[in-house]
Amino acid sequence: MTSISFITVDVFTSERFAGNQLAVIPDARGLSDARMQAIAAEFGYSETSFVLPPESAENTARVRIFTPTSEVPFAGHPNVGTGFALGRQEEIFGKRPGEHLHFEEKAGLVEVTLQRKDGIVSGARIVAPKPLAVGPEIDTATVAACASLDPDALSDRHHVPVRVSVGLAFTIAEIGDIDWLSKARPNVSAFDAANARYPLAEDSFSLFLYARTREHPWRIRARMFAPLDNVIEDPATGSASAALGAYLVSRLPDADAEVELTIEQGVEMRRRSLITVSVSKKSGILGKVGVSGDCVIAMRGSIDI
């Protein structure tokens, strides 16, 4: 019997046992696709990341990301947490990573920059691998049914419900206020119906709900449900936050903008997370979309295989 090492990281938090849990396998060489999927299911976190040698020597690593049910091409908190975990490792494949890491993923190349406090790696910032993609619009009744909410709880003040992506697709919808957002509950049967009506080739239907005030439009409360991926609720969703930030900035009337959003998620789960999203726009064209946050190592151990 052999064993492989793992690290678990709490992402988008500076407090242990808060934020979003991530399992990282720092050296996944020799693991089959089926074994990776089985390990991800065993952890039961929203995602588990597996680190492999890069195909190009110019890059840091090849990273594969699995939910409990399937592999995904990109996700936010696994990249932030994996970057942090590798930054805390003494050696990765015989060398220490630099301050700037490059991860080869199915969605493309992901740029990662380590963040430090008092000289110690404390988190990471990533850049979304793909430009903003928008569509289709999703009907309000479908979203309301998935969230077990009255359709009147949804707001179209800024946009109608719509699918957006900067590497991984989510349906985003604005809720009229935080109280209604807190009452949302995923309805699996409604998610099944939504998945049949709005199918995705690479993933199943997932829903990112958010609320904000007129006084603080760039401070956002959010929740994410993906029960068809065995993720009843996710405490922090960096890829959805990046897509939301990019979409909101794209709709600003200004041709030029530099916006930083703070997205608070996981409150209802007692795993509060803080996600920072930075988006730039110049001459009406979106630039790179960055996602950053703090991380904390929670556990270290080994898996018998």
Automatic annotation (TrEMBL):
The record ties this protein, via Pfam families, to:
PhzC-PhzF (PF02567)
Gene Ontology CC annotations of this record: cytoplasm
For this chain, one GO molecular function annotation is:
isomerase activity
Residues that span the membrane, as ranges: none
Protein family membership: Belongs to the PhzF family.
The protein in question is named PhzF family phenazine biosynthesis protein
